[in-house]
Amino acid sequence: HHGHGGNCDPTREGLWGLIAQQRVGNRSGRLEPRAIKRRPKPYPLLTKPRAIAREDIRTYGHPAKLK
């Protein structure tokens, strides 16, 4: 099924015709909010205990900003 346009399989042609006829009903209550829940934050998530993070900063300094 890696043809260049002209699909000559009559079974598949008929199948596509049937699929094209099937109209999806208006399903009420299917509104999706056009918003992103997690906004990009100025700092990354603290994934280790704060005390350990502080030690790491003392040892290696603040991590370079990833962008």
Topology:
Elements: H1 10-21, H2 50-60
Question: Describe it for me?
Answer:
There is one protein chain. The protein has helices at residues 10-21, 50-60. It has 67 residues and is mainly alpha-helical. The two termini are 41 Å apart. The model has no long low-confidence stretch (mean pLDDT 81).
**Which regions are unreliable across 5 or more consecutive residues at pLDDT < 50?**
none
Q: What sort of overall outline do the alpha carbons produce when their principal axes are compared?
A: elongated
Secondary structure: helix percent: 25-40%
> Mean pLDDT, as a whole number?
81
Number of helices: 2
Order of H and E elements: HH
Q: How is the main sheet built?
A: none
Global Rg: 27 Å
Total number of β-strand segments?
0
Report strand %: under 5%
**For the terminal residues, how far apart are their CA atoms?**
41 Å
Class derived from helix and strand content: mainly alpha
Features:
67 residues, mainly alpha, 34% helix
Nutshell version of this structure?
With 67 residues, the chain is mainly alpha-helical. 34% of the residues lie in helices and 0% in strands.
